[in-house]
Amino acid sequence: MKLKIPSSLLILMLVYLCLGQSSADAQALSGVTGLFQIPTAEMMPDKSVRLSHHVVPQKYSVYRRTGWVRAGYIDNAQLGYIANSVTLSFLPRLEVMFRYSYELDVPRGPDIEIFMDRMVAARFLLIRESERLPAVVFGLHDPGSSGGLTRNRFSTNNYYSANYFVASKNLEAGNVRYGIHSGYAFDIGSQQSIEYRGLFGGVSLEHEQFEWFQLILEYDSFQFNTAVKILLLDRIQLLGGLYNLDKFAGGISYRFQF
User: Fold this and answer.
1) What are phi and psi of 238, to 5 degrees?
2) Cα–chain-centroid distance for residue 99?
3) Smaller CB count within 10 Å for the chain: N or C?
4) Is residue 8 domain-resident?
5) 3-class secondary structure, 58
6) 193, 186 in Cβ contact below 8 A?
7) Domain count, the chain
8) Neighbouring C-alpha atoms within 13 Å toward the C-beta of 178
9) Among candidate residues 36, 76, 84, the one with its CA nearest the CA of residue 214
10) pLDDT digit string, tens, across residues 18-61
11) Contact status, residue 218 vs residue 35, Cβ threshold 8 Å
């Protein structure tokens, strides 16, 4: 007698095998380890690389907040930008990231400029999480200035500059794991903190039987956001959420070790 396994069961088994184990060191839209928009004090494992591709709506982009919005497109709800990043953790306490951003839905032509923005970030783990103490990280985004093509000329910009300390502590209550994250962004001399200003923080929530699925609620210094993360094969992360419970943003990232 042949044993027949329902196709629905096979699909469920395949999905279970594809799901990852934990999204604790997951990536934020900004390219660094974090929740949805904000960074956390969690770090990727040593000798890790993460490649990401994210889409962000212009309405809640730092370009609009800082006043750089292409004339004639400021009220276009569909206009946004794509951010591609490479994040590297090659020392136990250091994480570096390079990101390249460009606009969406902008007509192309010889007389139309294309906005391009490049930035780097570095994060240093100052305190490892212990039973009593939270992990603490110092972050520096887009230090100094980086080249960008704006207003038909090369100029300097640092739209994503940020200087901050952030702390993270993971707690458990029954079968539920809570991640509590809180940070403060500040200016250092002429190096302004633009991407984050003052206090920011958030909470992540996971069930021990569904560690591949994470719920997120955060405040990014400007508005409240909510999001979900799904981890597949311990390598692929899917991120999707709403800025200010209004506009969708999200993307995909892939992590590997060397």
Assistant:
1) -105, 130
2) 11
3) N
4) no
5) helix
6) yes
7) 1
8) 9
9) 36
10) 444 455 568 999 999 999 999 999 999 999 999 999 999 878 87
11) yes
